[in-house]
């Protein structure tokens, strides 16, 4: 039972990180129209998404 819970938890976390990066890249590119900024913001993922939400 414990091993199954661990596998499910790891899968959810990996999907969350991917979604955060994709969301940050989409927001950044829409806002700045720059691939370089999109890559940088994608690296910081959820930090940039939270910053954008608080400042807009």
Features of this protein?
single chain; 56 residues; globular
Task: Give the SSE layout.
Blueprint: H1 2-32, H2 35-44, H3 46-55
Helix pairs in contact: 1-2, 1-3
Description:
91% of the residues lie in helices and 0% in strands. The chain has 3 helices and no strands.
Q: Point out poorly predicted stretches.
A: none
Strand content: under 5%
- Gyration radius (Cα, Å) is 14 Å
Major sheet description: none
Mean pLDDT: 83
Query: What structural class is derived from the secondary structure elements?
Result: mainly alpha
Count every helix, treating DSSP H or I runs of 4 or more residues as helices: 3
Output the helix-strand order. Answer: HHH
Distance between the termini: 44 Å
The number of strands is 0
Brief digest:
The protein is an all-alpha fold and 56 residues long. The protein contains three helices and no strands. Helix 1 runs antiparallel to helix 2.
